[in-house]
């Protein structure tokens, strides 16, 4: 019986510790995400990774890494120089005032110094021309080009529409610009805003400073998780539920303990009545015996409380005495050091004389 009680107490403590740790973890993650959110264009970040729920259908498509509205995406912060054309990036859009995720079609890099060559890179799904459309080459590789020079790009699936880019003229700093577009040219949100479909030559002009990260994973399940976690009610509920569980378990343990104590006292009382030869059926004798028993128990509890108070007082006095002793020992040590210094100085003076 005692062994079972010990096991239950240990299990209860473990549950309390786990739930307490969960509360601390949730609060810690929320604080960290709140701090990073303010420095990451409103997107929370944890350990170098950011997370977004996809709100529009602009990235719906047939490519392996295309994704639908409602999915959750994982974003990894990379060096802008490591981003490749054809990858999907998340970025802050000045035009709409929040972050979106689109595929990089072209990357244009300004030269590092006057007279140097800049560079460009085109998605493997597109091709480029350096001679105004006379000949075309497949994208996928970085190409060096003098500042001020232009090149054309076009989709391999739509060769009627071309787009022209120019390597920026040196402006005193090395910089990079991403040109992106969603996979879905019939995106519903774009049609609602503009009244027409997205043109094949449409591009988001994304300066490197607005780059948030590269999309490395996506799923509908994760989208559902993000939608739930980002709900207004989630954090209060996630914290209150463990607290309520801990509180409920504490109340249950208290009631159980109280009942067990009462049962134990009842058994002890009956045993003492039998030992004293009191007949339980004799109400008057039983009542007198119970009153004496309760009085004795009350005195025992008061004595126990007094012992605890005296013990606490003794420990406090002992702690103070110990501190005082340590201070006096420290003062004695300082005195001895000073005495030794004075004797040493007197000895030196004696030697000089």
Q: TL;DR of this structure?
A:
The chain contains five helices and 14 strands. It is of the alpha+beta class and 353 residues long.
Radius of gyration: 39 Å
Number of helices: 5
The average pLDDT value, as a whole number, equals: 82
Instruction: Kindly state the number of beta strands.
Output: 14
Q: Helix content range of the residues, please?
A: 40-55%
Low-confidence regions: none
* Straight-line distance between termini: 87 Å
* Whole-number total of structural domains: 2
Structural class: alpha+beta
- Shape category: elongated
- N-to-C series of helices and strands: HEEEEEEEEEEEEHEEHHH
Sheet of most strands: 10 strands, antiparallel
Strand fraction equals: 15-25%
Q: What does this molecule look like?
A:
The protein is α+β, with helices and mostly antiparallel strands. It contains five helices and 14 strands. The strands form two sheets. Strands 1, 2, 3, 4, 5, 6, 9, 12, 13 and 14 form a ten-stranded antiparallel β-sheet that branches. Strands 8-7-10-11 form a four-stranded antiparallel β-sheet, with no helix packed on it. Strand 4 and strand 5 (98-109) form a beta hairpin. The termini are far apart. The mean pLDDT is 82.
Give the helix/strand layout:
Layout: H1 2-38, E1 45-46, E2 49-53, E3 72-76, E4 88-93, E5 98-109, E6 117-122, E7 126-129, E8 137-138, E9 142-146, E10 150-155, E11 163-166, E12 176-181, H2 188-194, E13 204-207, E14 211-219, H3 220-229, H4 234-276, H5 283-352
């Amino acid at each position: 019986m005692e062994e079972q009680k010990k096991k239950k107490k240990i299990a209860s403590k473990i549950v309390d510790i786990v739930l307490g740790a969960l509360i601390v973890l949730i609060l810690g993650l929320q604080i960290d995400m709140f701090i990073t959110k303010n420095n990451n264009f409103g997107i929370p970040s944890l350990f170098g990774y950011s997370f977004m729920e996809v709100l529009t259908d602009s990235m719906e498509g047939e490519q392996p890494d295309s994704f639908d509205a409602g999915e959750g995406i994982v974003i990894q912060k990379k060096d802008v120089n490591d981003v490749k054309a054809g990858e999907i990036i998340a970025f802050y859009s000045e035009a709409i005032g929040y972050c979106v995720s689109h595929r990089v079609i072209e990357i244009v890099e300004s030269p590092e110094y006057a007279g140097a060559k800049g560079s460009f890179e085109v998605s493997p799904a597109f091709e480029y021309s350096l001679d105004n459309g006379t000949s075309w080459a497949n994208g996928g590789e970085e190409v060096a080009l003098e500042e001020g020079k232009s090149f054309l790009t076009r989709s391999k699936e739509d060769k009627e529409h071309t787009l022209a880019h120019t390597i920026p003229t040196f402006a005193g700093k090395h910089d990079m610009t991403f040109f992106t577009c969603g996979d879905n040219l019939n995106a519903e949100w774009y049609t609602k805003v503009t009244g027409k479909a997205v043109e094949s030559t449409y591009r988001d002009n994304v300066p490197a400073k607005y780059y948030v990260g590269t999309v490395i994973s996506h799923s509908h399940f994760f989208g559902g998780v993000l939608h739930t976690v980002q709900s207004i009610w989630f954090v209060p509920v996630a914290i209150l539920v463990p607290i309520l569980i801990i509180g409920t378990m504490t109340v249950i343990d208290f009631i159980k303990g109280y009942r067990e104590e009462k049962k134990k006292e009842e058994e002890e009382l009956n045993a003492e009545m039998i030992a004293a030869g009191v007949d339980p059926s004799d109400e008057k004798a039983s009542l007198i015996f119970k009153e004496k028993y309760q009085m004795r128990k009350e005195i025992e509890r008061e004595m126990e409380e007094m012992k605890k108070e005296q013990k606490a007082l003794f420990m406090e006095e002992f702690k103070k005495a110990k501190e005082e002793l340590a201070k006096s020992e420290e003062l004695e040590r300082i005195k001895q050091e000073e005495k030794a210094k004075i004797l040493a100085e007197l000895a030196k003076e004696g030697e000089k004389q």
